[in-house]
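Try this one yourself first.
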């Protein structure tokens, strides 16, 4: 016969374990609901104000726009290029379309570089199968709207491939779907297959940072964010792109001329 005290202790421990599991599941459901709500909102969950001044440097004015990877890029902008950023943490590509044309008309860059899509795909990976299947089509629609806005404003559009996520931390694994890596790879393959219409180019940052598909430790700050070494590599890629494409024809604007 089990002593009464042992039975009580065991029962309490079991009850606490059930409560802990239930609490963890409830916390996960709350997190997932929040991520899906943020992705479905008309605007990014974090808003910033941006300065209007451009650095006084030669060459085309280049606007970096997108999510937190662009927002963090502001701390590592190349000192030899006329570059400004308009990054919003947590922003999806769909949300970016809502401010994209206005940002181009306000900043008047010669070239706009877009790094977006990771938040769309992370959120989609947490949803049901239909949500995941629709993510690729939604991304294509968002990039098409950006291409239209760039053409309308005479801006050269550079779409970057999506830098893949790193291995999630132990804590994040509870709310992480490994399928997001496959979604990123599929989206990047679609970007690489894009035709090259006038004024639109693809800069393959995923290939520069993660040629084997996995983001090296030297380039990962956490699952989704990047290190200074990664931004140095991205700046080199940007310089190379501008050197290789000095005279994009973008409506009535030439990417080789500062405005």
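Now uncover the answer:
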């Amino acid at each position: 016969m089990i002593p009464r005290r042992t039975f009580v202790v065991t029962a309490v421990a079991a009850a606490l374990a059930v409560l802990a599991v239930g609490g963890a599941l409830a916390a996960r459901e709350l997190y997932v609901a929040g991520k899906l709500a943020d992705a479905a909102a008309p605007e990014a969950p974090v808003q910033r104000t941006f300065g209007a001044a451009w650095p006084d440097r030669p060459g085309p004015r280049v606007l970096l726009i997108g999510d937190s990877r662009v927002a963090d890029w502001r701390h590592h902008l190349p000192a030899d290029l006329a570059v400004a950023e308009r990054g919003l943490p947590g922003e999806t590509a769909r949300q970016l379309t809502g401010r994209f044309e206005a940002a181009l008309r306000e900043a008047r860059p010669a070239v706009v570089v877009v790094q977006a899509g990771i938040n769309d795909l992370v959120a989609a990976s947490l949803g049901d199968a239909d949500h995941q299947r629709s993510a690729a089509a939604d991304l294509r629609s968002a990039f098409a709207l950006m291409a239209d806005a760039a053409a309308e404003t005479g801006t050269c559009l550079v779409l970057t491939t999506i830098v893949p996520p790193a291995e999630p931390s132990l804590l994040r694994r509870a709310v992480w779907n490994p399928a997001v890596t496959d979604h990123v790879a599929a989206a990047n393959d679609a970007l690489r297959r894009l035709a090259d219409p006038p004024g639109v180019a693809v800069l393959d940052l995923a290939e520069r940072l993660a040629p084997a598909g996995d983001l090296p430790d030297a380039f990962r700050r956490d699952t989704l964010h990047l290190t200074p070494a990664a931004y140095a590599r991205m700046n080199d890629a940007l310089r190379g792109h501008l050197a290789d494409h000095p005279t994009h024809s973008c409506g009535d604007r030439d990417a080789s001329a500062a405005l």
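Discussion: The chain has a mean pLDDT of 86. The helical segments are 4-40, 68-73, 93-107, 118-126, 129-153, 179-192, 205-209, 228-244.
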